[in-house]
Amino acid sequence: MTRIVLWMLVSCLTVAVFASEQIPAEHNLSADQIVEKNVAARGGLDAWRKVQTMAWVGHVNSANDPARDLPFVLALKRPNKTRFEITVLNQKALRVFDGREGWKVNPSGMGSGNMRPYTMDELKSARDEQVIDGPLIDHDAKGVSITLDGIDKVDGHDAYRLAAKLPSGVIRHVWVDAQTFLDVKYDREARGAHGPVTVEVSYSNYTNVDGLQIPLVIESGAAASGKRDKLSIDKVSLNPPLDDVIFAKPASQGRRNSVSVNVSASPPALPAMSRPTP
C-alpha cells in the first residue's frame, strides 16, 4: 500500500542505522499471531480483499526540495499497477508502472521533460511492491513468507520486527507496534552513489477510511542525517473506477494523460475523493 509512494519520490537515501534488541520473555507471540493481529487492527482480511483500486490526493514536503507542499496524486490498482503524479513549480513529474514495465517523466526548467524507461533497479523494486495492502495482508496468497526477527524501540514503543521474504527472494522488514499492532516502520534496500543503502519509511496518524486503518502521514529519511521527507494524505478513495489506460505507457511529450480528481471528468480521470473519517 503505502510503501511504493516514497520509493517513487526518493530515488536513494543515505544509510539509516537503528539499534535493536532481542525479544524479551513477555513478548511470546509467533510471527503468525502478530500478522493475524495486524490484519485485524487494519480492518480485516475480507475488507482488504474487496479493495481492488485505491487513490490518494495529498502533498509532499521533501528535505531535498526547497519548495513546500508539493501536490501529488497516486493511483493504485491490483495486482501491481501504479501511477504517481507530483506538481513541481507548475510542472508535473510522472511515474507509471503497468505491472511489467515502468516509465517516468521529470520536467525540465524549459518545460515538459522527456519520457524515460525505468532503470533495471527501479523495475526490480516496482515488481517487488505489494501495492494497496503491503506484504503482510494475505501474505500466503502472495507467496510472501513471514518470520519474526526480534523487537526494536520505535518512537519509544516496542515494535515487532518481521522479515518478509518476497517471491523474488528479496527480504523486507516491517515493524508492527506491540500495542496497536499497526505497521509503524518499513525498510528496503536501494542503490546509492557508493553502494547499497537502506531506506526507512515510517507511518503515523492512522485514520479510519470506510472501516480500514490507513496512515495519513508517511515519512522517510536516514536516522543519522536528521532529514525527513514527509508525505501527507489529504483525501482517500477506495475502489474508484480506474481504467487500465492511465497505467499504460504515457503518450508523447506534451500529451500525457493527467490524473484528475474532478468529479465531472470522464475516464481515465479519477473521481472525487472521499475524506477520511476520524
- Helix/strand structural class: mainly beta
Helix content: 10-25%
- Any idea what the shape is? globular
Counting DSSP H or I runs of 4 or more residues, the number of helices is: 5
Question: What value does the Rg take, in angstroms?
Answer: 18 Å
- Domain count, please report it: 1
User: Which architecture would the CATH scheme give at its second level?
Assistant: Clam
| Sheet with the most strands, sense and barrel status | 13 strands, antiparallel
Instruction: Write the element-wise H/E pattern from the N-terminal end onward.
Output: HHHEEEEEEHHEEEEEEE
Measured between the Cα atoms of the first and last residue, the distance is 20 Å
- Our estimate of the beta-strand percent is 35-45%
Oligomerization state of this entry? single chain
The total beta strand count reads 13
Instruction: Return residue spans where pLDDT drops below 50 for at least 5 consecutive residues.
Output: 4-26, 260-275
Determine the CATH superfamily. Answer: Lipoprotein localisation LolA/LolB/LppX
Mean pLDDT: 80
CATH topology: outer membrane lipoprotein receptor (LolB), chain A
- The level-1 CATH class: Mainly Beta
The spatial strand order of the largest sheet comes to 6-5-4-3-2-1-13-12-11-10-9-8-7
